[in-house]
Design brief:
Layout: H1 3-42, E1 46-49, H2 54-67, E2 76-80, H3 86-99, E3 103-107, H4 108-114, H5 130-141, E4 145-147, E5 164-167, E6 195-198, H6 206-216, E7 227-234, E8 237-240, E9 253-259, E10 272-273, H7 279-288, H8 293-297, H9 299-303, H10 308-313
Parallel strand pairs: 1-2, 1-4, 2-3, 4-6
Antiparallel strand pairs: 5-6, 7-8, 7-9, 9-10
Length: about 325
């Protein structure tokens, strides 16, 4: 075999690999678009949960493809703890305006003012209390379906979820009472006061998400990419130094190159050490990762008294 033949064979192999990867992402995108359209057809008052994070931005991209910019048939809903990263909320507002989508924001601080949320102490994370504000928003707007960006690979309780996950009239999830989903046929019947949580990217992985972001050139908040940040190492988790999370006596503050694999409440979300500045570089890092993104970055999963399954039963995302 001569050099020219070798070169041609290598080019053919690379092209085959490229098309195989695209075919995989195409199948996931097609499934997500199908589910987003099913929600629009089956429910009267759905909403898409939109935090400005990478998973909700992927869903928003699929919704744009499903319906067209300015034609998404349901509003975007954000439950704001008041402790979100400003880079994320700024990008949330920018993307919603860019698409011409209706954005509804409801705040945990408003629930605190009403007395429906009470913190055990001022420094307590508000993350778990989003459930109360979310259920209040559902009642206020009479939403019958909420589209979320949870994936099964994130956490074992989320792996139990159906794509169309039923919630009772108290907003609670009963994992043993979920409806079968055979041949992509979904039972969307509801009794008064009930609703569904719908997870169109359930079958995606973190790697799929980053490959799709790379392919579609989806813009993200800057903190998803490498930047220098002051952190404190807390038993392997890098806690960011902020006004809300100041260093304590004895803490060693370091400046490191970090990025966020997932974003949430500042008080419980940790970055990881990284120099990845592009989606392609993050794909390579993700291939080598041996800990899930929540396992590597979410303080509340390690310190909360309530498991994710318990929180979900109480109405959490």
């Amino acid at each position: 075999m001569n050099a020219r033949t070798d070169s041609a064979l290598l080019e053919k192999t690379n092209n085959m690999s490229y098309h195989l990867n695209n075919s995989h992402l195409d199948a996931l995108e097609e499934e997500t678009i199908f589910i987003l359209r099913e929600v629009a057809a089956a429910f009267e008052r759905p909403a898409l949960l939109f935090s400005g994070g990478k998973d909700s931005l992927v869903m928003l991209k699929c919704a744009e493809k499903a319906f067209g910019a300015g034609r998404i048939p349901y509003p975007l809903l954000m439950i704001d703890t008041g402790h979100n990263f400003p880079e994320v909320t700024d990008f949330r507002d920018f993307r919603a305006k860019e698409l011409g989508a209706e954005l509804i924001v409801r705040s945990v601080e408003d629930s605190m003012a009403r007395g429906t949320v009470r913190l055990a102490h001022p420094g307590e994370s508000r993350n778990v209390h989003q459930s109360v504000t979310l259920l209040e928003a559902i009642e206020e707007f009479r939403f019958d379906a909420l589209i979320g960006g949870a994936r099964r690979d994130e956490e074992k309780a989320r792996a139990k979820e159906r794509i169309f996950s039923h919630r009772d009239s108290f907003g609670q999830w009963q994992p043993k009472a979920q409806r079968p989903e055979l041949w992509t046929l979904f039972n969307t019947r509801l009794q008064p006061g009930e609703h569904f949580r719908v997870f169109p990217i359930s079958n995606w992985t973190e790697l799929d998400v980053w490959q799709y972001i790379d392919r579609e050139q989806i813009g993200l908040p800057s903190i998803y990419y490498t930047h220098k940040r002051q952190v404190v190492d807390k038993k392997g988790l890098l806690m960011p130094v902020t006004e809300l999370t100041p260093p304590r006596e004895g803490d060693v503050v370091e400046t490191r190159d970090v990025r966020f694999r997932t974003v949430g409440d500042i008080t419980c979300t940790a970055p990881v050490e990284s120099t990845a500045a592009t989606p392609a570089e993050i794909v390579i890092e993700t291939l080598a990762a041996d800990v899930s993104e929540r396992g590597a970055t979410r303080m509340d999963d390690k310190t909360s008294d309530a498991s994710m399954e318990k929180r979900k039963k109480d109405g959490y995302f």
